[in-house]
Structures
1.
Amino acid sequence: MAALERVKVLVLGDSGVGKSSLVHLLCQNQVLGNPSWTVGCSVDVRIHDYKEGTPEEKTYYIELWDVGGSVGSATSVKSTRAVFYNLLNGIILVHDLTNKKSSQNLYRWSLEALNRDVAPTGVLVTNGDYDRDQFADNQIPLLVIGTKLDQIPETKRNEVLTRTAFLAEDFNAEEINLDCTNPRYLAAGSSNAVKLSRFFDKVIEKRYFLRDGNQVCLFS
Amino acid sequence: MRSPSAAQQQGGNKRRRCKFRGVGLLVCLVMAARPFLSPQPLLQEKIRCMRLWTASLRVTMTVALAQWSSQNVMHKKVLFFGFGWLFFMRKLFKDYEVRQYVVQVIFSVTFAFSCTMFELIIFEILGVLNSSSRYFHWKLNLCVILLILVFMVPFYIGYFVVSNIRLLHRQKLLFACVLWLTFMYFFWKLGDPFPILSPKHGILSIEQLISRVGVIGVTLMALLSGFGAVNCPYTYMSYFLRNVTDADILALERRLLQTMDMIVSKKKRIAMAHRTMFQRGEVHNKPTGFWGMIKSVTTSVAGSENLSLIQQEVDALEELSRQLFLETADLHATKERIEYSKTFQGKYFNFLGYFFSIYCVWKIFMATINIVFDRVGKTDPVTRGIEITVNYLGIQFDVKFWSQHISFILVGIIIVTSIRGLLITLTKGMYFVSSVLLIRMSMPLEYRTIITEVLGELQFNFYHRWFDVIFLVSALSSILFLYLAHKQAPEKHMAL
């Protein structure tokens, strides 16, 4: 049974946005009872049916690597973290809907993971050096997830959602907004579940089915 | 003390006044305009900042129309306010958005008044401004700081703590008041075991509050100084750096990745087992009906026992992976330090480290002597040092003249490094008040008069003794701690 093929997806984001809760929800279908700080990296596994419902249906293991830390850490911490970024097939970027800075830091997170880290310029405007071209030729599928949706009051919801829509567009990725303490956001058949499933399918496709001549050396 | 003529002083003051007013306004403008510079400013933020801007403008204007002779101090206050605000936003809360402007305002105000206090000490030495206005400012500052420190800050801390607990959400205010009253009770009780009051002062006088704040602050400061005195040479000197090669790091990283792979494969087994159980209809040991119970007894007993065993193995492996990660991070940090020590800056800090280690040893020695021989430093150490050097070298030297300047510079250094230490370690107003008390010791006798006058008859000797004791305890325990940590680390790498 362990002969299923595997796919590695990184889960990145600032401290305290809810990555561990999210991973627990995705893999165990249960809410995480006692969240605590992640030291280093914690991995969990989700079994995913690729192309569910079609004759080409196949089951894969999706490894979700939840790397802890903050994007402004010292270089030594970053180079320690870099050991987890090898051979990655997909990235889930997690940000906190109540905290704007965590969304801004996602640009730096993605650049760090894609090995094209820009030295932190200053503190005032964190995405000043953002260049969409850097993401245009990116082969690795991205997904943007916003957490703590329940803590946003109804009146502010619209403006927050417009902001995150811009964010997802910048990354050329889908976005999901949810609350990690409530499993109904990812209930089977909901639009969020469909988006998630599509993302995983895309990751598996890029890994196993699209072997072009100019593949990036991140593939094994 | 030389004092320039009043006219010269006024002229100098005027120039300084204009400069500081301009800078203060500029800072306020920059702060308020910041959200407009960020890419997608929300309308509400814009409104908030317009309000802030007009408020700060109004404040600056009222301050400008205030007392004419003490313009200098007021504007520096605005300047410090701006600095405090900026520092708060940039360094302390870089990665988090602070919703409550109250917190920012209180922090900036505390910071501004604390800096003004330090500045007044410098004015004391320099002889700027006439002594009555200095006295007035001292009193004003102390009152405001004590008010904020003892009344507002604990109340707001209690309020925010309570509002984070969802149960007590309804009666936030009530519980915040209760917490505050508890704090005041313990704060008051703090004064009893210490011999800090002479009986002639009333209950609600400034001396009471200062003495208590002073005790807490002096303890904290002594702890931090003790630790800092030992940690500083340990960090700066490259003698203590272990030798780390790239091969070590690679080996450790390989171990870490192997552990992660093992965790992953075990988790895959668990996940697959759960899925087959789910597909076969056995959901979480809830047997339905008679046959369900029989089935669960025969089949999944073995299965679930196996699973819980694997789960325990996974937990142990996860703990191991955390340890390995921390060690790897440690190695990377050491390697970076080694590279840094080879640069010019690194060599400079290495030299400073040797210098500091001598200073720390001397301080510990002096603290021991003070305690053992029951002595309090009466003479200013710099004066004594210069006296000794002069007598030894036999040079004709106007000791008094030079010692003023040198002690002023030293006090300035203490202030600057205190501010840095303060802002990084986040102990607020108490640190400043107690710094004032302790700086008094480093100053020659003439300068002490005004501080003594303002702060009343506190038992300063007690504070010095208390500081020495805590400093010694803290320094010795941090030496022990660092020694143990240093010893343990190389052994771990031997086991690779």
2.
Amino acid sequence: MCVCPGPRRIGIPVRSSSPPLFSDAMPAPTQLFFPLIRNCELSRLYGTACYCHHRHLCCPSSYVPQSHLRYAPHPAYATFCRPKENWWQYTQGRRYVSTPQKFHLTPPQVNSILKANEYSFKVPEFDGKNVSSVLGFDSNQLPANAPIEDRRSAATCLQTRGMLLGVFDGHAGCACSQAVSERLFYYIAVSLLPHETLLEIENAVESGRALLPILQWHKHPNDYFSKEASKLYFNSLRTYWQELIDLNTGESDDIDVKEALINAFKRLDNDISLEAQVGDPNSFLNYLVLRVAFSGATACVAHVDGVNLHVANTGDSRAMLGVQEEDGSWSAVTLSNDHNAQNESELERLKLEHPKNEAKSVVKQDRLLGLLMPFRAFGDVKFKWSIDLQKRVIESGPDQLNDNEYTKFIPPNYYTPPYLTAEPEVIYHRLRPQDKFLILATDGLWETMHRQDVVRIVGEYLTGMHHQQPIAVGGYKVTLGQMHGLLTERRAKMSSVFEDQNAATHLIRHAVGNNEFGTVDHERLSKMLSLPEELARMYRDDITIIVVQFNSHVVGAYQNQEQ
Amino acid sequence: MHVPEDAVVSSADVALALASAASQNGVQIYDRTSVVHVMTKKGEVTGVETDKGQIECQYFVNCAGQWAYELGLSNEEPISIPLHACEHFYLLTRPLETPLQSNTPNIVDADGRIYIRNWQGGILSGGFEKTPKPIFTEGKNQLEIHNLQEDWDHFEPLLSSLLRRMPDLETLEIVKLVNCPETFTPDMRCIMGESPLVKGYYVLAGMNSAGLSFGGGAGRYLAEWMVDGYPSENVWELDLKRFGALQSSRTFLRHRVMEVMPLLYDLKVPRWDFQTGRQLRTSPLYDRLDAQGARWMEKHGFERPKYFVPPGKDLLALEQSKTFYKPDWFDIVESEVKCCKEAVCVIDMSSFTKFEITSTGDQALETLQYLFSNDLDVPVGHIVHTGMLNEGGGYENDCSIARLNKRSFFMISPTDQQVHCWAWLKKHMRLDSDLILEDVTWKYTALNLIGPRAVDVLSELSYAPITPDHFPSLFCKEMSVGYANGIRVMSMTHTGEPGFMLYIPIEYALHVYNEVMSVGQKYGIRNAGYYALRSLRIEKFFAFWGQDLNTLTTPLECGRESRVKLDKGVDFIGREALLQQRQNGVYKRLAMFVLDDHDTDLDLWPWWGEPIYRNGLYAGKTTSSAYSYTLERHVCLGFVHHFSENTGEEQVVTADFVNRGEYEIDIAGQRFQAKARLYPVASLYTHKRRKEDVELSDLHGK
């Protein structure tokens, strides 16, 4: 998660009439840590700071958390964020009144939490005869926010070849990430469609015939689509393809995937913005489109078609390729750039896009206008619209919007909007047989684990036993007993892997439960997962992971064909 | 169990010995010569095309082991021989400190899934693991890819169980782990016999890792088969024709052999169904029945309902349900049987093999009269039960034939007859005849309406009169049922209960089923499965081909003289043998045994194959058995022989001989008294509910 929480959002827990429920649920080490909070900037703690501190308790020497750099001090909001003695008092006070909570989760309970959102899709094949370069994918998410603000999507394009996969990290609510997760793939698919297909679809709509299906979704039952907005979304999409039809010069039907991805991202963001400006006669929808526009979401989307892999990224989620070297070891290849303050070229871009006198205010404390962590995102019209437009929309909007101080709040030093764009950076990669899998994940994962570890854990998980060199006796003097010992050892190594049937779940288990030795510590995992809703967000962020597995045989065959 | 005569032979040495013996008798052996394909002409083998030229021959035996499948397919008219190889590992060690002697017994530890034997003073130990590795799925070209490596990780469970059983072997030094693929078949029985398609093309393959033990016997039967036209024992269970092209999918075989191989060391329980390679052939009603709790068994690839688990009732998990005692479905089948007896049930029997035989002239009748023992020159609309006999008078098939019109017959045979019966008919049809033989199995869904109220259900669905006056037993009429026209309704069941068989063109199946179920509601209709059917038919002494009857049993041996018309004026196949048998008497007689002192709840159940003792002497084996819910006893069917006390020679069995014996059935070493009967219990046919037994609940819909 990457937003600077609006002052309101931070204020709420402090001013809330009911005390937060953390005290008795906290394990001893975290209680020790509370006094530290008072001296810290709260927004710094949002995300991983707590987590890192926790680690600090375990192994002080390694305590140089990256997040120190990423979450700069933020004196401007200190007043909102300093919980002062309140927090401590609550914790103290609660101690007397509450009954002790059962804290430890059993391994099955841990598993049921971890597996609640897991989803696997295998590209249909019949006994090893598979023509797709994608074998399938595993995905999962672990909420920290309540409700979770991350979203994920996966779909197969039906009118063109290829598969779309994406993770979306929402901020200031889940409305925008939800809308993007429902709509973005349609925009991409439409952008990829040849002119005749567009015409065919438009004619079908016009004459009331059955429509060609465009996407085959692969959804977990918890991944819902909004029924109410479906009509509105369709109309916007249709307007888009009508324009595509009109714009068609009839020159060539060679569709550039990169261009299609960029157009789709920009168009959807534009539609989100327009829908909020126009409003809707239905009051529910009207409020919905406004919530979508005023919240934000990053997106990291992969399009795989044969050996052609495009990753379009907006924001700070990340796409990582797992490459198996010839010696069987794993290395990580990053296929996206984070759009945040750690990215020099992004800083450069922002400075160039705004007048010189804003050079200091455009990025402050590593945040856009001192507020927003990602430098690119969907929605977030507070960083895109003119002040006039914002005021006008809010005033004419429903009361709920007017009462929300976050939406009303205009960012400081807001002179030359827009400050934010949804335009993605697209990276192309041609798949090679050694590219075994692709991980798409929100920053909740990358904050807690190094990319190299992520790739190694998934790689070892996916290849399972196979990465172990087969044993051959040839020539050595080996007794049955020695061989048995060796084999038992190899088996034990594998059994921990078999606990999970889903690579994403396996990764989350590591991300949340890893101890300083890089192995999953059940006690730690259990503590992290039993944090009450209100606290979970302080220790970890929403984590959403998609692991796409490639079929090396098919990729190899493509390569041979073209040689 | 210690077998002192147990021996170890080397397969290579045996093969060499056989080869040199054969050469001495003039057999020519071509080394390093590969068969390209087998040449055929007009459905007969004429020679073999090899990479070194052609060899003319009349007979060809495909014993290509794991390549038999491929060799079969290489024919112009492919012959499907369903088998698939799995990797098989065994371990060789250096000698023990005191080397093992050659008289060391072979040891099998079925729980540990391993065998252990002496090998040059050390041990040779392998096993049949729970997770086999199928190999060569894609055929011979894989030979180069897989260089059959040792796979120690795969062998680990077997090694563990070896060291658990014999911890002292720990210090033995390994020589190597051998990977030597073995071939398995879809039902763990080997494959032999003549191809149904090409005359003179024989097969002997798929020995399921027992090639050396079975080789001698299998070779003898095959030789008899080739020389005499049939083997001296009933080998239907091993006959290539029990399979068809439908078991030939590589994917099916790959999955099935993974289940078959571990079975070698598993406890094999009665009524066990394979779990892999299922749902291949299904009735259009499959989903409907499945949703109503159907549990399925498979025959010749076809899914058939065993019984229907009522909502809210839980059965044991698959592994726990394995038993030789009273099974968990007992009560379920009881209520289905009761419903068949008192109300009406519907059983989906679509799996039966259905042929239509038509001709322009009288050839159809002529051919059938020649092939079948009963008189088929009956008025149109009649149904005839008849055997399809071989020269020895034995049953090649037992079927029901309806005369649809003067020149057209509809023939219903057991499910697994699809290939065998077809081949038999083809073989005996004159090549130049204008007879049209069509396999219509797939065209019809068969529903059996069974029970006293079946007639009421059917009457409501049709305007055609159904009463016994208009529609007597063993008649076939084409009529409409519900909206659907052209349904073949037959006033017969396969159990002896009153009822009808409906042969429904598949597109009407769902409609007819729905109508039957909705109309039947007020008569208490419910679904029933094959287990209920089995109980019903066995208590009524109905023998089934493939279980009780086989190629070596004649109609006279099972009390079916009435189905043989020796005087019908046609010299049908087997007539000569039957005439002789009628004169000389029979040497075995099918009887029905009702167990007297058997406790259904506590004693082991009879399943089949239990020894029958007459006056304390062995007299034969049971062929099938079931619990009769009406007699409240177990009923077994089986053949009574008369072995001479002195010579052991078989003697004539008369009805008197059967009736005057005191019988016992031996179930796993415990003998139970049984009453033998040559005819069914009459009261079963006149079963009426007594007035005082009627309950209020009988008025409820079921």
